[in-house]
Recover the amino acids of this structure.
């Protein structure tokens, strides 16, 4: 694959461009004189010309092409727009103020075609309802269908989804490594940084004290996830914080796990009120209990996504470090299969 081309002799500018390109997961071809740029001029998906080389490049008469950007570290230089015209650039970007825009430009040309992945959020109607187990199981089931899947732990107090996968010792980044992220993140760089098992990529928390996820970091991760994954599953806290709001605003659907007892329904109603402020489609997943499923969904006034009867030996398997059992004979496996069929429009 051809790489973006940078034409500059300004070493400070080049350092800036290499750092910005790295943030987008891009490698660059660099030409310090116009003659060295000639073999790459037509093939490069993007050409970035330093203002120091604009006149020298224009003197060689390069053929017109799309996606040429002039960059400068000298704001308000009255000669900048003349240089832009001489090299046939379509835009001028001033650094450092335009670094985020330049990251986007690099990412656009180095990433494969976006997948427009679906986002599914899962929240518990009360503590211990099983939302984290369901989120993990949905992600596992999707990955076993060879769907590229990102599982995002958005509950700082949830104990860690890596434990449910038996991968707490897996190498890779956690939220604490990403909380400073703003702007666009390359999904290829994100996937390379995170623990990945076949088609499943996981973003969880470190053990110990955790900080809330900044909204900007969640936004960057989810946008990268939607571009690079077929499905993004987000395990939410019961009270939506700023990061959870970012996920809810992008969700195709949100599953609320409700225990079928009076206290569970009353608690779920409070959680539901918070979810509805930020997302449009919420469905109830009913955990078996003393109330009928119809009574639960009628009380909450939400559509019914399905039921999850208690599954023998599930708790034992999870405490042993095994992944959730998802065979067709298990209630969890049947629910995940049915839900994914419906979400993906697969006829049963």
């Amino acid at each position: 694959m051809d790489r973006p081309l940078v034409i500059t002799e300004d070493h400070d500018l080049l350092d800036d461009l290499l750092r910005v390109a790295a943030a987008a997961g891009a490698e660059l071809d660099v030409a310090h004189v116009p003659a060295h740029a000639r073999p790459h001029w037509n093939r490069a998906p993007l050409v970035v010309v330093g203002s120091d080389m604009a006149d020298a490049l224009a003197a060689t008469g390069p053929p017109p092409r799309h996606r040429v950007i002039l960059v400068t570290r000298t704001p308000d230089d009255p000669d900048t727009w003349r240089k832009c015209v001489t090299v046939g650039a379509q835009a001028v970007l001033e650094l450092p103020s335009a670094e985020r825009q330049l990251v986007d430009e690099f990412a656009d040309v180095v990433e494969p075609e976006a997948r427009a992945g679906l986002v599914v959020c899962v929240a518990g109607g009360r503590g211990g309802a099983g939302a984290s187990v369901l989120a993990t199981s949905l992600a596992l089931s999707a990955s076993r269908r060879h769907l590229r899947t990102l599982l995002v732990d958005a509950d700082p107090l949830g104990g860690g989804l890596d434990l449910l996968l038996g991968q707490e010792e897996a190498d890779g980044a956690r939220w604490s490594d990403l909380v400073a992220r703003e702007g666009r993140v390359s999904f290829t760089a994100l996937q390379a940084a995170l623990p990945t098992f076949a088609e499943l990529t996981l973003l969880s928390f470190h053990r110990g004290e955790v900080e809330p996820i900044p909204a900007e970091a969640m936004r960057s991760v989810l946008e990268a996830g939607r571009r690079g994954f077929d499905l993004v599953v987000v395990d939410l806290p019961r009270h939506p914080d700023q990061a959870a709001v970012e996920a809810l605003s992008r969700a195709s659907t949100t599953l609320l796990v409700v225990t079928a007892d009076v206290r569970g329904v009353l608690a779920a109603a409070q959680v539901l009120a918070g979810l509805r402020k930020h997302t449009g489609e919420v469905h109830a997943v009913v955990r078996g209990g003393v109330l009928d499923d119809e009574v639960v969904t009628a009380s909450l006034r939400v559509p019914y996504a399905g039921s999850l009867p208690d599954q023998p030996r599930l708790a034992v398997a999870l405490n042993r470090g095994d992944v959730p059992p998802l065979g067709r004979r298990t209630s969890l496996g049947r629910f995940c299969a049915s839900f994914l069929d419906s979400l993906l429009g697969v006829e049963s």
In short: The CA atoms of residues 8 and 50 lie 5 Å apart. The chain has 14 helices and 13 strands. The first helix runs from residue 11 to 23.
